[in-house]
Amino acid sequence: MNDPQKRYLFAGASSKIAIETANLLRKKKNIVMGISTKNNIEGYDSVYEVNNYNFGSFPEITDGIDGIVYFPGTINLKPFHLFTEKDFLNDYNINVLGAIAFTQAYLKNLKSVNSPSIVFISSVAATQGMPYHSSISAAKSAIEGLTRSLAAELAPKIRVNCVAPSLTETTLSEKFINTPEKLEASQKRNPLKKIGSATDIANAIEFLLSEKSNWITSQTLSIDGGMNNIKL
Can you give the pTM of this predicted structure? Predict the structure, then answer.
């Protein structure tokens, strides 16, 4: 039996994973709203266009919200000595401060319903030492810390969890897998010899939003083909 119809809100609604997650939820007759800096986004019941994900930029919503997910992110890889202050600040602003602003904007909406859920997006780079990942590793580590802190502060009313993918077939990662050689090299580095799909990540997010995970909070769920725990 499906859960009763619920309302969900996604920031970064144009992302491939966000759209796939929305499709999964809407197939079960849930309402999914999106917020995006891009226009003409399909796959949602309604979409709000914003200029950025800064504090004060999010539209007011009066109804209760059963779950929110913050999808905006960055993949900015290069040697540590080439990163500038602007690089670090940009990654932190998009990945961390945007997630904080989004969550603060809809905290009252979440508190007005039963068993609400917040999901953030981290990365395998937050826990695995990976060369050229210093900026995104720092930002995503902050997201995982935020997940645990909010889970403690908002319990028992609101559950807060996080998913941490490895390389996944999305627009952000396209430049790393846009040739057969790059794709094969990425697949070989993974214990399961493949990269993730948007559906792989969406399935995990849907689970964390649903009542099936109603005794799970403060967790970072690795969806990475074993990259975080297996060394071959």
Answer: 0.94
